[in-house]
Amino acid sequence: MRKLLLALYPFAWRERYGEEMSALLADSPPSLAATLDLARGAVRAHLHPLAGTQRAERARSCVVGVLGCFIAFCFLGAGFAKTTENFDYAGHRHPVLGATHNVVWVAALVAGGALLLAAAPLLLATLAEARRTRSVALAKLIAIPPLAVAALIASLGLLVIWLDAGHRHHVGVVGWLLFVLCQLAAIGSGYACWVSPRAILRRVEMPRHAYELSLPALGVVAISMAVITLATGLYLICVVLDASRLGASANGPGQLIDVTTSIAILLAGMVFLSAAALVSARRGLLAMRAL
Amino acid sequence: MRSNDPSLLVLTSLADGAKHGYAITQDVKAIAGVTLGPGTLYGALARLEERGLIEAVVSENRRRPYRLTGSGAEALREQLTAQERVVAVGLRRLSSARAAA
Question: How many structural domains are present in chain B?
């Protein structure tokens, strides 16, 4: 557990003190107080990066941080889309409900576009480096995210084909297996899309102009996430105040919770992730000024 | 710095020579009765190192020792002298109050 908490410290911190802290943990008897102290130290280390940390390292941390938040946010966004997929009628009847739903979709498109814009210069620099060094490992790292996303799309495609083949009302064992496969593929592709760029950024020294394009675009991603969060909050208020019957309808896995609770849980996650993305983006932009 | 400030405790611990992380926690526990957690200890070590008050000693071992720098010793002396003055005044006033009562 304590070794895992060490992984929460910033990369630069682990590079400098990781070995020593591991040795200290090996010497000390485990205790709850020490574990909590380690967790608190990790938060403080993120809030106050080491002064000696290279600006480029801070820019890298920003990319990895915002990307990680965005990927996790996508899962919550998918949950929101799934929860509200049949609410068109309510959206037409209630202007604010409809408008907030539209804002969520527009901001999601802006965030997706900004993310592609942020990724483009970094990807081009990585491709140039891979070609220059003829590094097979780098080429594999570049190939992992598109392959993971392709696997996710393929598994979703299989599920849709199965459902369209007359199994919508009786999903069956195969349908459930495909559903589990889709869930695993989603988690796996999300993880791959985060880990692979992180490994690339540690290997490749990105040129300054790549960060100059990438970091502001990541700022737009973080702002879009905050807009989606605000719109989801407004949507939840509308559901509670004006669509209580809709809000009380069963929702979630196994229909165990209602729509209101479902959106509230998603909103709590969105608030945390958009705040973390905004903090990370701000630090990246500050680091860029000094690059 | 307060008397139980982790940075002051670490500086005090290093006043008699270089120590690694575990030795510092044991020493601080012995001299002040304070248990420094790993996050707090390395937070203090990082701050002190950034300010040039301590420095890491080259070591082959994973347990890297730290020692006071010249300015670290000077900063520690200033802090302890300032606290000593407060302690002396406090004790003197307590004695006067007791005598008056």
Answer: 1
Examine residue B84 and state whether it is found in any structural domain, yes or no. yes
Q: What pLDDT digit, counting tens, does each position of A205-230 carry?
A: 888 888 888 999 999 999 999 999 99
pTM reported for the whole predicted model: 0.67
Judge whether A104 and A214 are in contact, CB under 8 Å.
no
Decide if B5 contacts B43 (C-beta within 8 A): no
Give the B-side interface with A, CB within 8 Å: 20-22, 25, 35, 37-43, 45-46, 50, 61-64
| Mutation to test the A interface, candidates B62, B64, B66, most A Cβ within 10 Å | B62
Domain assignment present for residue B59? The answer is yes
* Domain membership flag for residue B1: no
Taking contacts as CB-CB distances below 8 angstroms, the residues of chain A near B22 are: 23-24, 27-28
- Judge whether B10 lies within some domain: yes
Burial class (CB in 10 A: 0-12, 13-18, 19+), A86: exposed
CATH for B18 = 1.10.10.10
Chain A: give the shortest CA distance to residue B46, in Å.
Answer: 7
> Averaged over A186-199, what is the pLDDT?
93
Q: What is the pLDDT of residues A54-99, one digit of tens each?
A: 677 778 888 999 999 999 999 999 989 888 887 777 777 788 888 8
B21 CB neighbours in chain A (<8 A) are 20-21, 23-24
